[in-house]
Design a protein that fits this description.
Shape: globular
Oligomer: single chain
Number of strands: 17
Number of helices: 22
Largest sheet: 8 strands, mixed
Radius of gyration: 24 Å
Structural class: alpha/beta
Distance between the termini: 38 Å
Length: about 575
Amino acid sequence: MRALTGVGSTPLSGVGTARWYRPTALELPARPDPASVDSEAERERFERARNAAREAIRRARDRAAETVGEGEAAVFEAHEQFLDDPQLVDAIEGSIDDGSPAEHAVDDAYADAIAQFEGMEGRMAERADDLRDVRDRLLRALLDVAAVDLGSLPEGTVLLADRLTPSDTAELDPEAVAGIATATGGRTSHAAIIARSLAIPAVVGVGDGLDDIPEGATVLVDGEAGEVVVDPDEERRAAASDVDAPVVAARVSTADGREIEVAANVGRPAELDPAAERGADGIGLYRTEFLFLDRDAPPDEDEQFAAITAALQAFPDERVVVRTLDVGGDKQVPYLDLPEEPNPFLGRRGVRLSLSDHADLFETQLRALLRAAATDAGDALAVMVPMVARVEEVEDVLSRIEAVAATLDTEGVDYEIPDLGAMVETPAASYVAGALADRLDFLSIGTNDLTQYVMAADRENDGVADLHDPLHPAVLRAVDRTVTAAHACDAWVGMCGEMAGDPDLTELLVGLGLDELSMSAVTVPAVKARIRETDAESAATLAETVLACETRAAVVARLDGVE
């Protein structure tokens, strides 16, 4: 028995047979004499390859949206942007004009960009795999080389690889793959995030020692401890099975008795049952965008009503928080004819569209929600609106709900008004959190967007990935400000960003006063286990010291117990 150490990415364990993934070598032909290269023909080859890569990326995006959800599929939209990145395209076309064949020009341009990312730290370094993914698509198209099929691996496979790209990971069948171990990579890489969404045990960043594991060996992947064990004995197998936090159906409390709700983020109906099986206390974020995608027209009222009631029935007696339509920004719906804007993340998205361009869709959705609230399970329904920045937006939403209720009443249709809340994703919302909470029942902090806006760092822009960090003191203070203001108004506060599902941050979030944490279902057991181990008073003291920090490094040191 031999153990290798890496970074646990998915807090699950699995045992299976090692199978190495070694992508088909993309061997470039020898460079010809530049004078013999037809630059115009090579430019045409590059454009054909780019179009083929674009189609493949879009297919991967659609497949990922279906299997792991819209949020995780968004990485492929960033990949498509790489295809059109002016610096890369200019470098490739310039190299072609200087006499390089298209495949050499692509390889050279991407090699330079990959090297730049690898020389950085944290998330920036992990984005190099995204560039490799796009480069390899282009090279396969240029060299006419087929990709390895990872979707048909034998059951019980532990997949070993130097690295996995997001495209590789999205192809995996979670019913067949018992675990993943890679020599490189980090917990926040896009491939690791997709593996978590698929609930595949994963350990990344194991290092060169992984190469010594032979094909066919029995391997245990312990995503909680961050270990890869070769030829584990029965005792080690039993210990690993105990590592997976047991599913707890009931709500949990801290060691000193403070109850914390641990809910699931759900982006499609197929995720409802797995969330319940993992012990989620209801749904903290039900993304309704899935109803509007991959179709030619928006869903009608009855279809939305059916989807919402199905979610309520999947979690009887547990709260289900439905987010109203959140499109715009990085979420495009072709048939809605959304406006093209120079900076869509700062434009018309979320509630801004619901109150203006698509007020009719908003009214239809509100009718479905109010009707669902009147069903047998409807008492548990809560509704929140995204991208709030002004008190006036909340007041406008409340007025429209009253108008919809009046119409339903006139029509003789049963309805109830559910609990209402707003997402805190903008600095403005955190500053006026008290005024928002005074008009609502709850607030839910979306840390992915809140971090983006507090730090002025586009979360899809790898050039500022090091700034997109929820542990920056400014982001933590925005969270603290929101919780304090909402509690003063007797409103509860949840968190539904990726930060909520990191067990290493659970103690801090408890200390900051969050009432609810909502996350990918796979991390629910681990977070529940961490809550049970946490003393709320000690957590509050930790939060107080962290909020006094002036730098991210100081925050991390406090979380690591370094004074």
